[in-house]
Specification:
Length: 149
Amino acid sequence: AQYSGKFQYLGDILLNEDKVPDEFFISSQEQENWAYLKGSKKEPRTTKSGFTYQYSEGPVTYPDALDRASRTVVTGEGGRGASRFKHVVETKSGRYRRLTPVELERLNQFPDNHTKEATDNKRAFFMGNALVVGVVKKLGKSLAERDSL
């Protein structure tokens, strides 16, 4: 694909650290679990029936790179629990945190607080199910122009 416009990176959509509620920050005690889930693994696992198999997966960037495009927002983005799939960023002060609902809205190019009437977990779920507004708009415009020919 050829693109000549301005690129947007994960770091471009972040709120100032002082505007982020405390519940989005990851405590130092929780960081080891987050690092494990995001890291590569090659370990034996056993099913309930007793079958043993070799489980493996590659690493996920941890914390997420602020100078690159964001990964896809998924429906499980909400909640405090550690997860391989949730975005985690490192703040300027060196603290790790999850993304806020407003930041998830920004990643999908929705207006800030578009989902403000819902709980934070629902807001994250909504953004995980959403399409990126700008992509849909460009596709619609392209299709409309094509139909007018």
